Amino acid sequence: MTEQLLASRDQRRLATLVPVSALALFAGLLPASAEARIFGSEPIPISVGPNGEPANGPSGGGSVSGDNRLGRLVGFHSAASNLVGGDSNGAYDVFVWSRPGGQAGLSLKQSARPAGRLARVSVSSSGAEANGASVNPSVDGSLRSGPRCVAFQSSASNLASGDRDATSDVFVRDLGRNQTYLVSRGVGAAATNPSIDGGCRSVAFQAGGRVYTAGARSGRVQSIGGGSNPDYSIDGTAVVWERGGGIAIRRNGRTSSLGGGNDPTVSNRTSGLWGVAYNAGGQTYLKSIGNRGAQGARRISNGCQGAQGGAGASGGVTAFGPARGIITFTQGGTNLCYFNKNTGNSDDLAHANAPITEVSTSARANFVAFTSSASNFPFDGNGGTPDVFFKHLVDGNAL
Q1: Domains detected in the chain
Q2: Distance CA 138, CA 189 (A)
Q3: CB of 365 within 8 A of CB of 319?
Q4: pTM of the model
């Protein structure tokens, strides 16, 4: 069952990207010889135990909160039992790492666990641990409000009332109220791949070959079309998903097809347009979408300074995608890069000795999380086992 849950997630996630001023400033300060260097801080593993000990199981599925420039929370799933106390269910769980404020949350230097707090959130309203696997978190947070909810899928039957079987369902954990809600109520098929909007109002998910939206706290479930792998914009104005070998978008009650591609993510509405980042033929593209249709695609995975060649995958688009968004993408499988649509700058974010997947970027591209089993990052003693890594893309006191 765990393998099915994880396989159902078409490696994606990234979800939120946007302005650029800070990135443009620091990109301009990089020397011309930056080919072997990376932009921002070194990635650090956040899927580690209380004293920095390596996780005793694989981790992945990172999701950075969409709270403007702050990026306070990162959700991820892990099969490890040594990340927090009392983890005895022998199953994948969903955790949330809270990035601390002040300089500690910017320098991201690690001497044990990174500064901040790690909590398990795939629990019932009474705090009971799940009796089944929980994976694929999606964290909310918007340009005007901090994060407060995490959506995830689980085969557990003891997380919320109304769920009495081991079929995968979608849940929302309200971090402020310490309540867990069943979202996919009444949907008979396995519900997977949740994506929550920035205000904890609505969740998109897939089930039985269709895409649904539902209220984040057990609201009405509505089918919006056939397909899979949905992504909600932070402002809740649009949902994109895969449909029949292509991409669909729903906004203002209207659904349109965007042509071939997969793994789409969508920006906020900006000047009447949404930006959709997606993969096609091993390349990453950005397409601007209005109320009446698309305005054409632009290929953005055209190479970083130190990461030339090779097929890649989209890591997502920031909140202000159409005009001045930032898109992250992998190149050659083991390199993570960004492209700034406003300035035209590209640069390297990470070079790994193993594949980089499941990229998630904050709303303004201040922070990024990703999954890798690489062994060449500082502080990582878990090479060969997938971990979730986190880094900042701007220098220290910019926040």
Answers
A1: 2-398 (2.120.10.30)
A2: 20
A3: no
A4: 0.89
**Would you say 18 and 362 are in contact if contact means Cβ atoms under 8 Å apart?**
no
Half-sphere exposure of 394 (CA within 13 A, CB side): 21
Rounded to an integer, what distance in angstroms lies between the CA atom of residue 391 and that of residue 359? 12
Q: Residue 222 carries which side chain, given as an amino acid letter?
A: Q
Q: How far apart are the first and last CA of the chain?
A: 42
Structure tokens at 398: 């910019």
d(CA 7, CA 206): 13
Question: By C-alpha distance, which of 64, 36, 59 is closest to 48?
Answer: 59
SS3 28: helix
Residue with the two structure tokens 């079309």: 225
Pick left, alpha or beta for residue 75 (phi over 0 → left; psi -120 to 50 → alpha; otherwise beta): beta
CA angle (337 as vertex; 333, 343 as ends), nearest 5: 150
Say how far apart CA 237 and CA 233 lie, in whole Å. Answer: 6
Residue pLDDT, tens place only, 347-386: 899 999 999 999 999 999 999 999 999 999 877 777 789 9
- Six-digit token pair at 72? 């306070």
User: Could you tell me which residues are beta bridge partners of residue 338?
Assistant: 328, 347
All residues at 6 or more sequence positions from 48 whose CB lies less than 8 Å from its CB, including other chains: 54, 55, 83, 113, 114, 382, 387
Residues 6+ positions from 252 with CB-CB distance below 8 Å: 237, 291
Q: Are strands 117-120 and 93-98 parallel, antiparallel or unpaired?
A: antiparallel
| Nearest CA-CA partner of 222 in 239, 198, 235 | 239
Length reported for the chain = 399
Nearest to 65 by CA among 137, 169, 152: 137
Helix (H, G, I), strand (E, B) or coil at 83: coil
Tokens 């897939």 belong to residue: 206
Residue-wise pLDDT tens digits, 94-148 = 999 998 877 777 766 655 566 779 999 999 999 999 999 999 999 999 999 999 9
Report how far residue 302's alpha carbon sits from residue 381's, in angstroms, rounded to the nearest whole number. Answer: 33
Q: How far apart are CA 194 and CA 74, in angstroms?
A: 15
Q: Give CA separation, 142 vs 79, 155, 233, in Å.
A: 29, 29, 10
62 with 76: CB under 8 angstroms?
yes
C-alpha separations of 305 from 146, 261, 311, 328 in Å: 35, 26, 16, 14
Q: Which two tokens stand for residue 276?
A: 């959709």
User: What's the rounded Cα separation, in Å, for the pair 364 and 62?
Assistant: 17
